[in-house]
Amino acid sequence: MLSTAAAFTMLLCAALSGCGSDAEEAAAAAATPPTKHPSANRSPAASAAEMVAAVGAKPGAGVVDLRFVISKRPQVNQPVDIELALTPSVELEHLFARFQVAEGLQLVAGAETPHIEHPAANVAIGHKLTVIPQGDGIFYITAVVLADSDKDSVARNFNIPLIAGQGLAEAPATPTAASVADPKQAPARP
Question: Structurally, how many domains does the chain consist of?
Fold first, then answer.
């Protein structure tokens, strides 16, 4: 079983791999007005096998799956595209997603999806975000996905990790043997 840190590291490494995309396409996708016809929605260019699952706030499957692929390794002050695929697992009446970025990222295109009426179950709906990292670090993009079915309405949060530039500053140094107290020499507690 993987430790949490190892699993997180694997997820971040997988998030950095991906296929190329075009900033103009991202801007055009963001400028697309809301649609009521699912056939008007652009399918993602990358297949689900090439994408990484976004981390849901609640464990387990929900009514919508969110996957992503980052076009290239994010560099400071350089735009990077993130291709997304929203896939409903059930028939829905309405689907909508809004994206927010953490401090240190600038969201330049794709802040929200169109309001999609009657998206088909198990059919991926493509969307692109363009962000610009403002400095080195590990950042998160939060997606709030709203899904309405004939039975209920569900809001689900997802996180998309992004490592920009050099990532985090150097990790804290491991304590040396001289700086670690010997438990045999420690005074006894009363």
Answer: 1
Four-point Cα dihedral 152, 102, 42, 33, nearest 10: 80
Residues in the chain, overall count: 190
pTM of the entire structure?
0.64
Residue 57 lies in a domain: yes
In a domain, 133, yes or no: yes
pLDDT in tens, 26-51: 333 333 333 333 333 455 555 666 78
The three-state DSSP-derived secondary structure of the chain is CCCHHHHHHHHHHHHHCCCCCCHHHHHHHHHCCCECCHHHCCCCCCCHHHCEECEECCCCCCCEEEEEEECCCCCCCCCEEEEEEEEECCCCCEEEEEEEECCCEEEEECCECCCEECCCCCCCEEEEEEEEECCCEEEEEEEEEEEECCCCEEEEEEEEEEEECCCCCCCCCCCCHHHCCCCCCCCCCC
61 is in which domain, residue-wise?
23-169
Query: 71-112, pLDDT tens digit by residue?
Result: 888 989 999 999 999 999 899 999 999 999 988 899 999 999
CA 170 to chain centre: 24
Query: Is 180 a domain residue?
Result: no
Question: Does residue 122 fall inside a structural domain?
Answer: yes
CATH number for the domain that contains residue 99: 2.60.40.10
